[in-house]
Write a structure and sequence with these properties.
The complex is a heterodimer. Chain A is an all-beta fold. Helix content of chain A is about 0%, strand content about 50%. The termini of chain A are far apart. The chains are: A mainly beta, B mainly beta.
Chain lengths: ~120, ~110
Amino acid sequence: DAGVTQSPTHLIKTRGQQVTLRCSPKSGHDTVSWYQQALGQGPQFIFQYYEEEERQRGNFPDRFSGHQFPNYSSELNVNALLLGDSALYLCASSLAGSQSSYEQYFGPGTRLTVT
Amino acid sequence: GDSVTQMEGPVTLSEEAFLTINCTYTATGYPSLFWYVQYPGEGLQLLLKATKADDKGSNKGFEATYRKETTSFHLEKGSVQVSDSAVYFCALSRGGYQKVTFGIGTKLQVIP
């Protein structure tokens, strides 16, 4: 049973560039959430996708956008990168409507460095 | 809004020592509470959970009890091992959309 997978593992970008991160949820899960974890901090919620729609959003600017595909996989896009966007980006999946819908399974993350 | 406060680290303990990591929360309603663990270079793993008041979550020798009267969910282990060295995050989830709010994390280092 494959867990949550993310790609790429590491990424280095320059200020002003755009980046796309990818996530495949755990088998059987239909909901994907994205988090940003700055060094030495706890993860911060970016947004959540369900049925290909953004269902909830945290306090992140519109430069952060996402997409969910019919197979439940998801992308996180960040435009006009800033140095402060350097962080570990975590994807988490869950199954909506289940008794354990509050349980989120996390991927290993993508380490983004903006120079 | 929702928030989680946990003790600042790092915490350094000798092997077989008793561990307590304090966690308190602020949230309306009745959130579910979690402890996640992050080993070096890895993603987050759910360690234990509790979904209602007075529930005790437990896993791998770790325990935490949901105390609504004190809005706390302290993590404990009777005898830590070197392999327990990691960062521990207290977290809560409220509502049907399952957004998880995390604390800052507490780094635990266990020395032989």
